[in-house]
Amino acid sequence: MSDTAPNSEPAHELRADGSDPVEELPPQTLPLDAWHRARAGRMVPFAGYTMPVQYEGIMAEHLWTRESAGLFDVSHMGQLLIHGPDATAALEALLPGDLKILKPAKMRYSLLLDEQGGILDDLMVTRIDAAGPEVPFPLKAEGDDVAADDEDAFYMVVNGATKYDDIGHLREHLADAITLNHLDDRALLALQGPKAVDALERILPGVAALTFMTAGGFDWNGHALWVSRSGYTGEDGFEISLPEDAATAFADAICAEPEVKPIGLGARDSLRLEAGLPLYGHDLSPDTTPVAADLGFALSKRRREEGGFPGAEHILAERAAGPETKRFGLIIEGRQPVREGAEVIDADGNAVGHVTSGGFAPSISAPIAMAYCPPALAEAGTVMLRQRGKVHAARVVPMPFVPHRYVR
Fold it and tell me: Measured between alpha carbons, how far is 62 from 363 in angstroms, rounded to an integer?
């Protein structure tokens, strides 16, 4: 398994001043690229890949997922296997979660932080039983004399746009004894919606026994799958890691079930926004901390008490004093959505915050947004937004905008 970017030939032309330009790689294709095109997927560049933004239409796909089940191709995400002696301690030096108490097949949302407490990425990490017969990720080469059950092992999924930076950061900070494998020969599919379990149980008997934030290994037609009950829509659902050469046949099989349709990036974004879930590069960045982002649940109790993760001193001080700015949910008055970059303004018209995600919410038939602004301003219950010179009123509301329907 390779842990470097695929080879490709970038365009290379000199700038007008004769200097070398910054090389830009052309978009990569997903294992299911031809499958999406055959189903009239409208393909667009996203996170360094060409990906389907919609098939039938964003509104229809959004509502179908809320009512039935939608299949999302998220193979652009980075799938990493991290293992070695005391990998738990090695990862706890980089993440603020309590991994010591994480049992095999259990997963946790966490954050990759810089030394100032800024968010480099948000991710999902799962402890795996290195010696378990159902684990599809081989830790040892054939003939290796180190027993797999001596290994401390984790499966991690990171964002597609940041995965190579994440890999570089992890390699720089993990001890030499810790092995990091980029599982770039595996596809990743997400099946989301209230009827997802009905459809997937027919394909993978036994998958219904999983509960939210647990995972397990399954065999499908001789292919080793790793399935978690998780997702990014607020609905019940699953994420399925599988060999990329099995992705087309599996997508055909699951979409043959009457509950399932393929869904594009457009509906994925509106679904996650309704669910109050932040998107890295928009709602999260190195300029935001877990406290400001309202992600305090990712700071486990023991870690808050002990510290020992990047930026701990700053984050814990901010947590005690309260952040100067914080992420809030907004319902916009009227029908016009307010988009990313709109300003939050005070009574004098001064910009004191900004919208990071915004759009129309099909499930509640209203425009919604996430924004960062001073907590004292949000406490009034209403804030004013300025977009292209026009001022909009917005009501501050708790998130999620649509209740989560996870199966715990």
Answer: 8
Q: If you search the block for the tokens 């649509």, which residue do you land on? A: 402
Contacts of 138 (CB under 8 A, 6+ apart): none
For residue 109, give both structure tokens: 């949302």
User: How far is residue 31's CA from residue 200's CA, in Å, rounded to a whole number?
Assistant: 21
Percent of the chain scoring above 90 in pLDDT? 88
Rounded Cα gap, residues 28 and 46, in angstroms:
10
Q: Closest by alpha carbon to 123, among 307, 278, 348, 310?
A: 278
Q: Are strands 260-262 and 69-73 parallel, antiparallel or unpaired?
A: parallel
| Residue 220 structure tokens | 């499908």
Q: Are 325 and 353 a contacting pair, CB within 8 Å? A: yes
Rg of the chain's alpha carbons, rounded to an integer? Answer: 22
Alpha helix (H) residue ranges in 180-246: 196-203
Rounded distance between C-alpha atoms, residue 355 and residue 8, angstroms = 36
Report how far residue 259's alpha carbon sits from residue 67's, in angstroms, rounded to the nearest whole number.
9
Give residues with Cβ within 8 angstroms of 349, minimum separation 6: 386
Residue 312 CA from chain centroid, whole number: 23
- pTM for the structure as a whole: 0.92
Condensed to tens digits (0 to 9), the pLDDT of residues 60-115 reads 999 999 999 999 999 999 999 999 999 999 999 999 999 999 999 999 999 999 99
Residue ranges for the chain with pLDDT beneath 70: 1-24, 139-150
pLDDT at res. 149: 52
